[in-house]
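Tutorial handout. Part one gives the primary structure; part two gives the three-dimensional structure as C-alpha cells.
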Amino acid sequence: MITVELEELVESLLEICRRVDAKGFVTATDGNISARLPNGNFLATPTSLNKGFVAAGDLVEITPEGVRVAGNRNPSSEMDMHLFIYKNRPDVNAVVHCHPVYATGFAAARIPMNECLFPEVIVGLGAVPLAPYATPSTREVSEAIGPFVKSADAILLANHGVVTYGSDLWDAYFKMEKVEHAAHIQFVARMLGGEKTLTSDDIAKLRAISVASYGKDFSGKPACEVLSPEPDTEFTQEEFRKIVEEVKKRLSQST
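Part two.
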C-alpha cells in the first residue's frame, strides 16, 4: 500500500529531478538523488537515465547495504557515497549530487569555497570544503569526503561536482542551489577585480543576529576564512552577549 507520505516523497524527488535538469545542474545522464524511506531503506534515481526523464516507475529502493529490493533499474553507481553520508549523518534524510557549472568549476580548479563572503551562505552552510580527487563511482569517493561529512552539509568533489545533503529532499536541493549561486557570484566578483571577505567583526554581528532572531548559532558549521585586511579582533563571551542584546534591542525598535 502506497501511503500519502510516500507519494509526497516520490513527487518531491521527481520534481527535484526536473529542476536540476532544467537549471543545467546536470547533463545527459549525470547526477543522482536519494531519500531515506520510513522503513529505513532508501529511494534513489537509477543509473543511465536523464534526470528530466525520470518517472516514478524508474526509481529504485535499496537497503543500507546497497542491495536493490524494489525497482526494475539499477541504482546510480554513486550510491556508495550516498549510503556513506546516511551512515555517518543520522540527521540526513536526502542527498543530491550534481555537476553545476560554476561550483564544479571551483572543484575543477581545486579551490574550496571557504571564504567569508555571503551572509546567507555563512549562516546556512558555513564554508564549503573541497574533497580530494577520487575516481567517481568507487569507494574512493566516500574515503575522500570522510573528513568533512560530519561537519559540512555541502562538499565540492575535486574535478567531479558537488554533493549536498539535508533534513529532507528540498533542504538538500536548496543547498545545491545556494552553493551554485554563491559560486557564480564569486566567479563574477573575481572578474571584477576580486572578492572582498567580511571581517571578524562582521561575522560576530552576523552570528549575533542569527542567535537573536532565529535562535541559531552557526558557529558549529565549518568556519569560513577571513582574508581581507582587518584589525585583530577577538570577542569574549561577555562581549558577544552584549552584541546579541544590542541586536535584540534594535530589532524590537524596528518592529
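Part three, for discussion. The chain has a mean pLDDT of 91. DSSP finds eight helices and eight strands in the chain.
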